[in-house]
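Working notes for the structural subgroup meeting. M.R. asked for a predicted model of this chain before we commit to crystallization trials. I am recording the input and output together here so anyone reviewing the notebook later can reproduce the run.

Input as submitted:
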Amino acid sequence: MKWFAVDSKLTYGLGAARDKNPPGVRRASSEPSRLDVVTPLDIVVSALPEIPRAIVKGALEEASAIWDPASLAFRWHVVDALNEPADPFSVRVILNDEVGTAYYTQRALGWITFGASGAPGPVIHLSHGNAVWLLDAIGTCRSRPTREREMLLGRALGRALAHELGHYLLPLKNHTPAGLMRGRRTRDEFFAPRRIGFEPNSQERGILAVRVGLQEAE
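Returned structure, recorded in token form:
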């Protein structure tokens, strides 16, 4: 099995996690509006080998940066999709070229499945193929250098990943009018240099704080 350690401004490593709950965090006594990291959430990223590692790395760094205001930490474990671990970790991201539910003018960059009970499953799907389709819809981007295209694709997939992680962590099945969990995004928002509107807002951070408090009380 090949493992790729992905640098992150939060944390990285190869430690295994069996806990199926969101990461344990607690309130900081000096900053009640923020959360201190206690245990990072280990996430296995199963990526097709033909997807450039620069895109995978960029996506994970973008998702980590988006969740930074909530002081959540992730340890990403990138594996070859053709040689997945027999014992999956608590949360998995599957990055391939699957189209999923598609419409003529719309394709999802990511999705997560909810069970009959309304609880989110621990598997997030990301579509590299749909991200390429979305980027190529911008005529001027088709002929851009490979490195620039990989940067843009990683950025868009990372923002989609951060959103789907929100469905899992909060947990929240529906979308919100604003903030990270807003349902509809323009093409430009996914590729823009600034991630305006993608950071968890105060309401979303409040939901997370309540969920963490309930978990600690158990």
